[in-house]
Amino acid sequence: MNTFRPLCLFLLAAAISCISISCNKHEASSGSGSKVVGFSQEDEESDWRTAESQSIKSEAQNRHIDLRFADAQEDQEKQIKAIRAFIAQRVNAIILAPRVETGWDQVLREAKNAKIPVVLVDRGVSAPEDLYVTLIASDFVEEGHRAADWLAKHTNGKARIVELQGTAGSAPAIDRHKGFADELAKYPDMKILASQDGDFQVSKGKEVMAAFLKSVGKENITAVYAHNDNMALGAIQAIQEAGLTPGKDIMVVSIDGIHAALQAILDGTINCVVECNPLLGPQAFDAIDDTLAGKTIPKRTVQKDELFDKSNLTPELLAKRKY
Ligand code: AHR
Description:
Blueprint: H1 4-27, E1 36-41, H2 47-62, E2 66-71, H3 76-88, E3 93-97, H4 105-113, E4 118-121, E5 134-137, H5 140-154, E6 159-165, H6 171-184, E7 190-197, H7 202-217, E8 223-226, H8 229-241, E9 251-256, H9 259-267, E10 272-275, H10 281-292, E11 300-302, E12 307-309, H11 315-320
Helix pairs in contact: 2-10, 3-4, 5-6, 7-8
Bound molecules: alpha-L-arabinofuranose.
């Protein structure tokens, strides 16, 4: 019997199957064979968010990861489209910084069905937990508690407050309001007189604060609580333009810890900043590596954050900060 022909056919089939496996692998990695990761960023509305994007981009570079970056410019629909594009490109993993809490179930399920792990950074979603591998973020409720607690201690529990809220429907806006209001409930003489969305932006923070100064009356406001530093910086401008001294006539408390806000503490125009660390790149890529290696990782990693005011902030400390 001639065994030569079947042997040739077997070798040919084996070769075709090797080529096909290597092609599939190639689709999920870049030309150099490194990992491909898609990163959907909700916007670049604040200095904090620019620092977050930078941390993820530079960590990808350090690890020779092919990062596909998509800025959704405040549009959740664009984020959903970007995630679908990453799935179609068969990336190895997706990092998502979601704009709002709701509306993610369907697209996260599509990623799960395609066996592409999704790591959430900085903001949580209200989708079932099995649809993402982990959330790496600060505790926004706790940030609100700490801001209110600082204000209570520095006003002897008596304050009329206006609140500049972050993007409506976003986890930090919801949780920072909740944490602040819960803590305030302990103090009968501390009240929020007005509260409005300033979308985490300097210009809107200024606009809303200028409106508060007119509607509430500048003499009636003890303090402004801003859900982020950029809105606080906008509020400072509005307070100055109204002929008042921010930090003295009206106290300013905010969240994030960007360089300009900490400088404002040294200058006396902001009284207190609760830190929210945006440098999430290393942890996000560790989570991806561990997940792709089949390790079980915690569903939630909470960032350790500081609180700054004039009692603990020095120019030397500020000079050492990375954002
Ligand atoms: O999700 C974190 C918040 O979003 C930051 O406080 C803010 O500056 C940002 O844009």
